[in-house]
């Protein structure tokens, strides 16, 4: 593998890792603060991708579609939290697993009724439809760099939100001790709704910016969900920092595995997870 | 954490009577039912075995495994590999071999997953099952995404499994044997230790039980019994594909156990029958004004699951108990 090729794979793995982080961050926050296992998290990613497909056709611009779609996804998240999830924060994990599994079926079929079962493609915006030449034959698409940049900005925003703002302080207080935070006058129900909607929004934005690269297809949520589980397990459930590091690690292992060891590539990430579990059953960064 | 509220370990007399009547009905069914329904009930019984195997983890030990379908699939695939293209293969060594393959996979994966707790256990069992899924899905040598055909049912010498009725009774015998075995196990010292782990694992450890080994043994045994179900499924349907080990299948198994009520194995069987029947019902719905309702069976199943979890979280048995308790409270 020469340098240019190596660089491309490295950029790809970082981009994949950051995309996984967008999903895993929401998943890990929703678990860390509300104690909910959300199998339907992958469906929000799918929802985002389909919204990008429909809205970019409607608005004629992917940027407008992403902004509009993110707003819709957050509203959807708030509604879902109000209608169903808030009644499940204190229930068994078993109930949460079944509820969210049922929701996967519902979302998947509603998607099938609204959008059909065809694969759709979303056009890369004109302004980003060019490549950076690396050698005579190899180049790197600008849109992928843009994806990584968006993810990085959002990750940074999430970090600042949680560690530097008053809202973030309340979120951390809620994660540390829900009842105590509530007793001290923090509107914990509102915090829950905000965190849930934030998680849905992040997953949907990930789906939207990934749509031009991955295309839009049925069941696209399930595959990414399992990868997010692996990321969250390796990083330590509830830890956003752990999710970031583990997402980048999974991105590296998966991308380079596919290039260097294609025959066992799909297993490598799971082997990584098994190794981490042997070493630290609570994940690398226990929240 | 996941302490089930409605696991009637001791079944009331009324339930026992219903069970005996149920067995008699199952024994008589092939005489009255058509070939189609005989096969369908046989499949329900296979799912009953699968659901019971999961109940050992879910209801008895308190381990929520979201990857149980992997062990179901491995034994079925083992049968597919062991059956030659042009001749049947003997039941008497392939059944133990296939079950052993599932047990071995459960032992190896269990070694990793049993050290985790609660939500980690759920996510890790699911992730490992998905690893098995991709192993089969991505490798042409293992059948790839299309799966494998099993051209002949296993040959048993003493009886002919190609005969649908014989297969039905063989499945019924397996169902009863697994039920009797698990009920016996439930009240053995081993079963009591598993129940103790469900209620309070720390206390069990403090009392000197090596809970890791108990949980690993339960995980392996549950995998082996799931393998028995998978073997029968492969033999009956004549094919195996990766979807049978996917996480939808694992979630279906959880739903079966919940639907019937967990921790007593009879509920798992009832739940499996109910779930399979609903699946059949939803996949067979008539079209309503140009809208193909049967094509969207997952929508109905999804809504059904959500409704059950919201309104009857302890299954039909738990719902019946709750209504009964309410009636008693009113009467008193």
Strand content of chain B: under 5%
Q: What series of H and E elements makes up the topology of chain A?
A: HHHHEEHHHHHHH
The average pLDDT of chain B is: 91
The counted number of beta strands of chain A is 2
Instruction: Tell me the number of structural domains of chain B.
Output: 1
Q: How much is the average pLDDT of chain A?
A: 90
Structural class of chain B: mainly alpha
Keywords:
heterodimer, A: 287 residues, mainly alpha, 2 strands, globular, B: 332 residues, ABC transporter involved in vitamin B12 uptake, BtuC, two-stranded antiparallel sheet, 13 helices, 71% helix, disordered N terminus
Description:
- The longest helix of chain A is centred in the N-terminal third of the chain and has 32 residues, at 3-34.
- Chain A has a domain at 15-125 and 138-219.
- The radius of gyration of chain A is 19 Å and the shape is globular.
- With 287 residues, chain A is mainly α.
- Chain A has helices spanning 3-34, 41-59, 62-83, 93-115, 142-164, 166-176, 178-183, 188-214, 220-235, 240-260, 265-279, and strands at 131-133, 139-141.
- Chain B is an all-alpha fold and 332 residues long.
- Chain B contains 13 helices and two strands, in the order H-H-H-H-H-E-H-H-H-H-E-H-H-H-H.
- Chain B has a two-stranded antiparallel sheet with strand order 1-2.
- Chain B has one domain (13-331): ABC transporter involved in vitamin B12 uptake, BtuC, CATH 1.10.3470.
- Chains A and B meet through helix 4, helix 9 and helix 11 of A and helix 5, helix 10 and helix 12 of B.
Write the layout of secondary structure elements.
The complex is a heterodimer of chains A (287) and B (332).
Chain A: H1 3-34, H2 41-59, H3 62-83, H4 93-115, E1 131-133, E2 139-141, H5 142-164, H6 166-176, H7 178-183, H8 188-214, H9 220-235, H10 240-260, H11 265-279
Antiparallel strand pairs in A: 1-2
Chain B: H1 13-32, H2 35-61, H3 69-82, H4 91-113, H5 118-138, E1 148-149, H6 164-186, H7 189-199, H8 201-206, H9 211-237, E2 239-240, H10 247-260, H11 266-283, H12 297-311, H13 315-331
Antiparallel strand pairs in B: 1-2
